Amino acid sequence: MRQSVPYFYQLGTQIGYLDVPTAHLTGLLRRPRAVEPRNFVPRDIPMRFDPRAMPDIDRWVRRHGSRFLFVNGEQDPVVAEPFRLGPGTRDSRVLWAPGANHHLGLADLPPTARAETTATLLRWAGNPVAPRR
């Protein structure tokens, strides 16, 4: 769980986290706020949400981003607000993994998209894929 602290910190301070209405369940839930990011970050680490962070990053990606690869799961609730490429974004891709959720990787992409993405990553790393004969 310790390795997840930075992720939950960023959720609670920049990205945001889903809000599940539970008022109608008052008195029925044992831990009504158990899944909030604050509960996964040690209390001695201050957390304050900055609502300007993600719009600022999104704007930068659209105007200046280069070599970005966004792999989204089709069933992932987090991508209700996905990054989109803009007129200033260069050499970047947005991919969707059919039926995948939040925990996915390149292996979850369809074979053609996986091969193209692997070739792109190798090119970005300065190791272009040799053409198949």
TrEMBL record:
Q: Which organism is it from?
A: Streptomyces shaanxiensis
> Which Pfam families does this UniProt record tie to the protein?
Peptidase_S37
InterPro entries (alphabetical): Peptidase_S37
Q: What is this protein called?
A: Alpha/beta hydrolase
